[in-house]
Design a protein that fits this description.
Layout (H helix, E strand, L loop, with lengths): L2 H16 L5 H17 L4 H15 L2 H4 L4 H17 L14 E6 L6 H14 L4 E6 L4 H14 L3 E2 L6 H14 L4 E6 L7 H14 L3 E7 L4 H13 L4 E5 L8 H10 L3 E5 L7 E3 L2 H9 L1
Helix pairs in contact: 1-2, 1-5, 2-3, 3-5, 5-12, 6-7, 8-9, 10-11
The chain binds guanosine-5'-diphosphate.
Length: 294
């Protein structure tokens, strides 16, 4: 995870660390290399611009240049600003006191939605909840079977009703949950290869009819800025409460993880770090920054 960005930042920051004295000139040169490393890691260019501005403002001050270990100070500033970029960690799922908490998962096809639905259900089970999975992705023929298989592995019920439209499947699932003592319902909705009107109409209808308590946007970290752009579009057209970044285990660059919060203002709640059902972690910006900076 993050090998490529870690290696390139290590090379640049290593030069800082080794220096006993720094001038404004070498700080700016070094930060120019940091800028290139971040752009290569597919971090959103506006985010990079702002990031470098913040780091530069803090680094070229007298306090840093005259300090005993100025290079270390700059590295620390880069670390702090990376954490700020990703915002406060926010991994809470607000569960309702009574009744059913409805969590709707949205995202493009192949982003990892169905797998994430299983992972989230497993997590909720471990918190003492009794989740119900609703198979409302009737766009991708294999999705329903896939969710049923995950349900069997976890011993969690999966609601599906053949021949019903997605909104109706979801509302019937919520009704079933009420009648059968499930306190959480996870809706696995359809995606498409690209954002289109049909998809948005379908998702908006589910959202408007059922007013889910939480909507999470699932996206594939390996797609870098494409993931960030689709997050922005989904947020503008539908709105969501948080992001679940899947496939972080295969992401060598970190561009999506570093940009999504700054671009959408929405927190990354969880990250997927493998295909198996136990490979879901809470997202903590400080740990991510430390991982990247080694
Ligand atoms: P959906 O179309 O959005 O429902 O996507 P799927 O849940 O079917 O996932 C697409 C592919 O990504 C599958 O092969 C999953 O096993 C894989 N996948 C999902 N999450 C992760 C993850 O966190 N890490 C890895 N390595 N693979 C994942």
């Amino acid at each position: 995870m993050f090998e490529s960005i870690t290696n390139s930042l290590e090379a640049v920051l290593g030069k800082f660390r080794g220096k006993g004295r720094l001038t404004e000139g070498n700080i700016k040169d070094g930060l120019h290399e940091v800028r290139l490393a971040l752009l290569e890691a597919d971090v959103n260019y506006k985010v990079v611009k702002n990031f470098i501005k913040q780091v530069t403002e803090r680094s070229v001050g007298e306090e840093v240049i005259k300090s005993v270990a100025p290079g270390q100070q700059v590295v620390k500033i880069v670390h702090d600003e990376l954490i700020k970029l990703m915002g406060e960690s926010d991994t809470s799922i607000p569960f309702k006191e009574g009744g059913q908490t409805v969590v709707m998962l949205v995202g493009l096809q192949g982003s990892g939605k169905t797998t994430t639905a299983g992972k989230l259900a497993r997590l909720m089970l471990s918190k003492g909840k009794k989740p119900l999975l609703a198979a409302a992705d009737i766009q991708r023929p294999a999705a329903v079977e896939q969710l049923k298989t995950l349900g069997r592995q976890l011993d969690i019920q999966v609601y599906f009703e053949k021949d019903l439209p997605p909104t109706k499947i979801c509302s019937e699932a919520i009704k079933y949950a009420k009648e059968n003592g499930h306190d959480v319902v996870i809706l696995d909705t359809a995606g498409r290869l690209h954002i289109d009107n049909e998809l948005m109409l379908e998702l908006r209808e589910i959202k408007d009819t059922l007013t889910p308590d939480q909507i999470y946007f699932v996206c594939d970290a390996m797609t870098g800025q494409d993931a960030v752009n689709s997050a922005r579009e989904f947020d503008e057209q539908l709105g969501f409460d948080g992001v679940i970044l899947s496939k972080l285990d295969g992401d060598t660059r970190g561009g999506a993880a570093l940009s999504i919060r700054a671009v959408t203002g929405k927190p990354i709640k969880f990250v997927g770090i493998g295909e198996k059902l136990d490979r879901l972690e809470e997202f903590h910006p400080d740990r991510m920054a430390s991982r990247i900076l080694g």
